[in-house]
Design a protein that fits this description.
Blueprint: E1 4-6, E2 27-31, E3 40-44, H1 51-66, E4 70-73, H2 79-89, E5 94-97, H3 111-119, E6 123-126, H4 136-150, E7 153-156, H5 164-174, E8 178-181, H6 192-199, E9 203-204, H7 208-215, H8 222-230, H9 235-245, H10 251-258, H11 262-274, E10 278-282, E11 285-288
Parallel strand pairs: 3-4, 3-7, 4-5, 5-6, 7-8, 8-9
Antiparallel strand pairs: 1-2, 2-6, 10-11
Helix pairs in contact: 1-2, 4-5
Length: about 290
């Protein structure tokens, strides 16, 4: 495979990395990056995955790929490699971000998987080249900011209480990405990290079909959109919807214009989200579904 390199800001797909802390100066890669921005979901989880976690990761990645959504992960043992295989089996493209030099596919056992990713139109990439200083204890954690940075949504499938996947989740939150966690058995160590994320406010992953409806909302008829844009079940909901319908997305700005308290705003916007009328973009920004 031929090694290529790119400045992230010079490609419409990787340009999103301009918005993350410590944007990589260069990306070394095999394959071909998409020319345009495509909806992308990061699927991450434990290297010591269980059958339950692998089943969720595979089915989710395959379903996303079948819808033309790119799956990004880390090529590691466990959930990451299972997600890559699911995306490939779904006929889609997947992106693997390494924590090692681009010349050093790690784990070595996944060299064939990396080749398959490239052969099917995907990318294997790293910010490191041969000769760069690599610190095994930190380089894999450091690359996680790129995995979440490329994604629109991040799904943590399985994670122990102390896990690299939780590091990816923390990057996702800082970057304002939509974070989902797969709930698990409270008695299983590999579920402890995900359950903790949910406790702290991460979206609950309730199944593949439910997640797909969130990522690809069903299109509403024009009449329904007009009605939703104007009327809520309370005056506060209606006021918020009217501002959203004219392009105001910032929650703080809505509260200021409506002279609405934080408590009243949070109650109204939460009810609109539960009803599936509005969508949380992160950092108190919202849009109509």
């Amino acid at each position: 495979m031929k090694i290529k390199r790119i400045l992230p800001q010079n490609n419409n797909y990787t340009k999103v990395l301009e918005n993350i802390a410590l944007m990589p100066e260069l990306l070394y890669y095999y394959g071909e990056w998409p020319e345009e921005r495509v909806k992308t979901v990061a699927i991450v989880g434990s290297r010591k995955s269980t059958k339950y976690g692998e089943d969720v990761a595979y089915r989710l990645a395959k379903a996303l790929a079948e819808k033309g959504i790119i799956v990004v992960s880390g090529l590691a043992f466990g959930v990451d490699s299972v997600a890559a295989r699911g995306a490939l089996d779904g006929g889609g493209r997947t992106i693997a971000i390494l924590g090692t030099e681009i010349e050093n596919i790690y784990p070595k056992r996944h060299e064939k998987l990396a080749e398959r990713i490239v052969e099917n139109g995907g990318v294997v990439a790293s910010e490191y080249k041969l000769g760069d200083e690599i610190y095994p204890k930190t380089s894999f954690l450091f690359r996680n900011r790129i995995i979440s940075g490329l994604a629109d949504f991040v799904v943590v499938v399985e994670a122990a209480e102390r896990s690299g996947s939780l590091n990816t989740a923390s990057h996702a939150l800082v970057q304002g990405k939509e974070l989902f966690a797969v709930p698990g058995d409270v008695g299983k160590p590999m579920s402890a990290g995900c359950n903790r994320l949910i406790q702290k406010g991460a979206n609950v992953f309730l199944g593949v079909e439910d997640f797909l409806r969130y990522v690809i909302p069903p299109k509403r008829k024009k009449k329904e959109i007009e009605q939703i844009s104007l009327f809520g079940d309370t005056p506060a909901e209606t006021d918020i919807l009217r501002l959203l319908s004219v392009g105001v997305r910032d929650g703080d700005l809505m509260m200021e214009r409506l002279e609405m308290s934080v408590e009243d705003f949070n109650q109204a916007i939460t009810m609109l989200e539960i009803k599936g009328i509005v969508k949380d973009l992160g950092l108190n920004h919202w849009e109509l579904v």
